Amino acid sequence: MAVMHRIRIFHAFLALTVLAAYFSAEMGLIHAWLGYGVAALITFRLIWALSGVPQLGLERFYPSFKDMHLKGIATHPAISRVLLAGIALSVIGATGTGIMMDNGRAFQPTSLSSFSFSGEDESEEHESEGGEDESGEAYEEAHELLANLAIAFVVMHVLYLLAFKRPLARFMLFANKSAK
User: May I ask which residue range the UniProt record assigns to the signal sequence (predicted)?
Assistant: First the structure.
């Protein structure tokens, strides 16, 4: 299987996992597990980048404004790279703050036995009784901000690709015509 097809499959898994995590924000343990899934996919991608294959390198996320002119600015690679870097940083930040807030509670046997779809679990109730500390509240605010920022970058990324890089968008969305 060609590298670009593997990237496309990885992209689909990551995109679906990030979206599922975002839209499950009020689902407690499900949200936490999806967040850990995103963390695993990010870790896998970072290790995959070490393979030495040029298409997998992290330099794809570094924007270079070299040779950028007003003519052709909309299709310059720097625009795509800025959007990719914004997505990467905000998803990594949201995932990191989520893991810090969870602090491994999703892996404890008690959380698995008292599986809950609600955003409030037993540990959160105990925190609210004793008064939530300010750092936990700051993590939660940062987590929500970064998650919303990630979705904003994703929307801009999709709109940009559809407007200026339609063949690539079709390929990544499995909508390209297959050559038989």
Answer: none
Quick one: pLDDT at residue 88? 94
Local structure of residue 72 (DSSP, 8 states):
T
CA distances from residue 61 to 56, 120, 145, 156 in whole angstroms, order as listed = 10, 36, 21, 16
Evaluate if pTM is beyond 0.90: no
Residue type, 149: L
Q: Which residue has the tokens 């990885």?
A: 10
Q: Measure CA of the first residue to CA of the last residue in the chain; give whole Å.
A: 16
SS3 category, 119: coil
Q: Are 59 and 88 in contact (CB under 8 A)?
A: no
- The interaxial angle of helices 29-49 and 3-23, nearest 10 deg, is 160
pLDDT digits (tens, 9 = 90+) for 33-55: 999 999 999 999 999 888 877 77
- Sign of the C-alpha dihedral computed for residues 72, 65, 54 and 5 taken in this order: negative
User: Domain segments of the chain: what residues?
Assistant: 25-45+76-175
- CB of 58 within 8 A of CB of 88? no
Write the CA distances from 76 to 24, 40, 107, 157, integer angstroms.
35, 32, 44, 14
